[in-house]
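Bench notes, afternoon.
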Amino acid sequence: LLHICRTVLTCVGSLQLHRNSLAGHANLIRQTNCTTLLHSEGFPISGIIERCQLETVQVPELETLLNESPSKVFPYNKTFEQARYDPCIVMHTSGSTGLPAPVTCTHWSINTIDWHHLVPPLNDRPSVWGPFFNERRRNYLAYPITASSGIGAGIADICFSNITTVLGPPEQATAKTLEEMVQYADIDSASCVPAT
């Protein structure tokens, strides 16, 4: 993620909803001045490339990223103060009321999640975001990882609460899914959409 922030700031890393139309993808690319499209194998890029004329980079598959061979180091040398207003991640709205619109989260806006750890107790009652969330060890993330909410919640948990995010099946989580995650995935918390 840091490497992407550092080297491809104008790349929309958020063409995450496969249900978006070509017009929706093209609109996001134009609005963010994207010049490079990072994609996984099998992502349908031909229409996007034809319409937007982007450089493309196919990212390695998960097995490659998780192997134990040494990888090249890409240092990120900016201090927080220097990077505070730089984009950290670009996500997008669902497009339910028109074309999807980009939402740029800066390092500062993402960091507000961590500031919750500094909220002191009120009348001897601890803040929910600090101590309570830090008690979690393995959190089932029922938000779709292809949606901004899933990406945001996943990043927040991993980076600021030091927990393992457990992903379930790609389809909408149900009560049965949640029951099976409790039974088999060794979770001690869950972040669910209201429909679950």
